[in-house]
Amino acid sequence: MLNKKTILLAAGFTSAIAAGPLLAKDFSYTYVEGGYADVEVDNDDADQIYGGGSLALDRNIFVRGSIGNLDYNRNLEFDTVSIGVGTPRKLSDRSDLVMALDYSFAESESTNPALDNIDVDTLTGSVMSRTWLTNNIEGNLSAGLAYQDVDGDSDAGAVLGAGLRVYIVPQFSVAGNISRSFVGDYDTDSVGINARLAF
Fold first, then answer.
1. CB 88 within 8 A of CB 98
2. 4's torsion region: left (phi>0), alpha (psi -120 to 50) or beta?
3. Which residues form the signal peptide (predicted)?
4. How far apart are CA 188 and CA 199, in angstroms?
5. Which domain holds residue 12?
6. C-alpha to C-alpha distance for 164 and 176, rounded to whole angstroms
7. Which residue, among 116, 117, 59, 106, has the nearest Cα to 83 in the 3D structure?
8. Residue 23: exposed, middle, or buried by beta-carbon count in 10 A (0-12, 13-18, 19+)?
9. pLDDT > 90: percent of the chain
10. Is the pLDDT of residue 155 over 50?
11. Using CA atoms, how far apart are residues 155 and 57, in angstroms rounded to an integer?
12. Residue 76 forms beta bridges with which residues?
């Protein structure tokens, strides 16, 4: 039986094959998007949904944010909020380097008193590349360092990611992405898809 990760990756590659040609252009940093991810924390699965966006204040700076929900399969879920600021730098006609600082807050809800009202604060500094692989396919690689506080217990670690975004039309795209976090006692793996409308 196919698992969720296999299905998500297959959907991403199918979209890439089916997408029509598109002329390369400057990357947009003003957009709205929504997505889903399958998250695994030390063999404990969760489903994540989120919505958010980014606003370019000028050519050199943007602000972004999102809200979401992380639902574990054991009577535990987290409501999440993230805000951040970043700056893109053009490396070539086909590549941007994006430096960003993001803060996220998550609070748990559970009928189990031991798991209810857990606060998780995370500050992440990251660098991401955006590169036109073809005229309508964008590739991403990212690396960052995150500092996390869970109810007073703090830790730090690396966050790595990669993604593939397919532009169906110049303003609308779909993407598949994978990431791994090495923060805290447990590694966190995520495989996701999202849709984005750029302006």
1. yes
2. alpha
3. 1-24
4. 32
5. 4-198
6. 6
7. 106
8. exposed
9. 77
10. yes
11. 33
12. 72
DSSP the chain: ---HHHHHHHHHHHHHHHPPP----PPP--EEEEEEEEEEETTEEEEEEEEEEEEEEETTEEEEEEEEEEEETTTEEEEEEEEEEEEEEEEETTEEEEEEEEEEEEEEE-SSTTTTT-EEEEEEEEEEEEEESSSSEEEEEEEEEEEEEETTEEEEEEEEEEEEEEEEETTEEEEEEEEEE--SSS-EEEEEEEEEEE-
CATH number at residue 119: 2.40.128.100
Q: Decide if 75 contacts 95 (C-beta within 8 A).
A: no
DSSP string over 99-110: EEEEEEEEEEE-
Strand partners, 66: 52, 82
Domain count, the chain: 1
**Which of these, 117, 100, 99, lies nearest to 108 by C-alpha position?**
117
Which pTM value belongs to this model?
Answer: 0.84
- pLDDT tens per residue, range 34-56: 999 999 988 789 999 999 999 99
**Which tens digits make up the pLDDT trace of 165-199?**
999 999 999 999 999 999 987 799 999 999 999 99
Pairing outcome for strands 137-150 and 95-109:
unpaired
